[in-house]
């Protein structure tokens, strides 16, 4: 029998408190200063709030090898496919290589501002956005993050 989870919430009592205290500031920081570092910091709480919601509604139940959690996660992934992309980005940023099946095939771009030469003018800033390649389609990370944030904001209303 699985041991029940231990809750070490670092003063965040509940999913909406975690959402407002961690995820919202992280995504705001990314959009204020888009860097790969801030992208990773924004992706992980937007993905992991799913487990906070699960535990809030299912206290003491582990997520591992739990068909009820698998169904719960599948419902959210179906409702917001961008969460699947953030899961892959989050897991890959933590573990580097993933042995499980992923949706994301590749991530390109620097996600940073760069100096460029456009129309004869020096020092024009332009973005080199992070692009997530998944299922044969290119997704701009900013759009993926915005869609997932909108999804969770609607869940917490």
Topology, pairings included?
Elements: H1 15-32, H2 36-57, H3 67-79, H4 82-95, E1 104-108, E2 113-118, E3 121-127, E4 131-134, E5 137-140, H5 141-155
Antiparallel strand pairs: 1-4, 2-3, 4-5
Helix pairs in contact: 1-2, 1-5, 2-4, 2-5, 4-5
Compact summary:
The protein has 157 residues and is α+β, with helices and mostly antiparallel strands.
What is the string of SSEs from the N terminus onward? HHHHEEEEEH
Largest sheet: 3 strands, antiparallel
Overall geometric form: globular
The pLDDT mean sits at: 82
Strand content bin: 15-25%
Helix content: 40-55%
Please tally the helical runs, counting DSSP H or I stretches of 4 or more residues: 5
Distance between the termini: 36 Å
Structural class comes to alpha+beta
Q: How big is the Rg?
A: 18 Å
Biggest sheet strand order reads 1-4-5
Q: What's the count of strands? A: 5
Low-confidence stretches: 114-124
Can you describe what's shown?
- About 7% of the residues have low confidence.
- 52% of the residues lie in helices and 17% in strands.
- Helix 2 runs parallel beside helix 5.
- The chain has a domain of 99 residues.
- The protein has 157 residues and is of the alpha+beta class.
